[in-house]
What does this fold into?
Amino acid sequence: MFRGLRAVLWKEVIHIRRDPATRFVFAIPLIELLIFGYAIDTDVKEISTVVFDLDRRQESRELIEEFENTRYFRVKGRVGSREELVQAIVSGRAKVGIMIPPDYSENLVRGRQAQVQVLIDGSDSSIATRVLNASQGLGFTKSLEKEGLTPELMAVDIRPRLLFNPNLESANFFVPGVIGVILQVVTLFLTAFSIIREREQGTIEQLMVTPVSKGGLIVGKLIPYYAIGLIQTGLVLLVMVLLFRVPIHGSVGLLLLLASIFLFSALGMGIVISTFARTQGEAMQVSVLFMLPSVLLSGFVFPRESMPLAIYLLSFLIPATYYIEILRGIILRGAGWPALWDEALILLAFGIVFMVVSVLRFKKQLE
It folds into this structure.
């Protein structure tokens, strides 16, 4: 019944040992486990914060220090006006803005209630909820140190205000991020198999004997997938608005323009993978290696601020990190080109680097 079992078993062992893709079978789970084991942390801390201090006296400086001592706030800078405070949040440079009025210290000294306003970026519901609770808790604690337990007698009245997503609806936070992840995954898989498929079918040599340059061949293979990506972008945005009722507060034209830049980098990443991988199975494993960090390290689910420094720095090498920031900036915060030009420039640089590497790798493989 099992005649020849030993021979077939030994043949497969030899095949697995000689197959270069085997090393990815063992490496990928270990790499993913190490990265995500350190990176995933739902306890949000060190949230980027800017301060507009109109008081500038000892009491206000102590209040800022107490905000930082909670470990939920990390002051990244100070601004000179309320408009700069709001713009820092709109641009994504900060998630929280603390505004201390000019009479804060005087009110405390005279025994009157001192009010402090905390502006919170509600586009990230998990961060907003934690900031809301932490700021209210800080205000209550400082008031207990002064006098009384009732809200009327609170010495420090910290008034949080949620911007962009006042009801903290999770769909407003997750749906734009889902769009970025979906486009990253789909375009990556579409192009990761393009050159490998030609090689396995034996048609790559036929293409090379035609008067087509290597750059022309790669760009020609990308353009159809680029068009598919644009159609998918329009489709998912339409579903987001009509089905999930998530309005686009910024410019739709700017959103589509930056989406096209992102597609350029995502497709380029797929082409690079196809030039390194030798088989479709190997391309699949490498694609998964890139896909999971795009989901978990880009800020789609877990705040990047709570990640260890090494993992946080690694997230800057993921194109989806910048595209998700663009999506949430335009869709939720109404951000414009002045707030997003740096993300767009980085995505364009990613695309150019991927294209250059793919052309060089493609030439080397043919030789």
Q: What stands out?
A: Strands lie at 47-53, 73-78, 96-100, 114-121, 156-163. The mean pLDDT is 78. The CA atoms of residues 189 and 200 lie 17 Å apart.
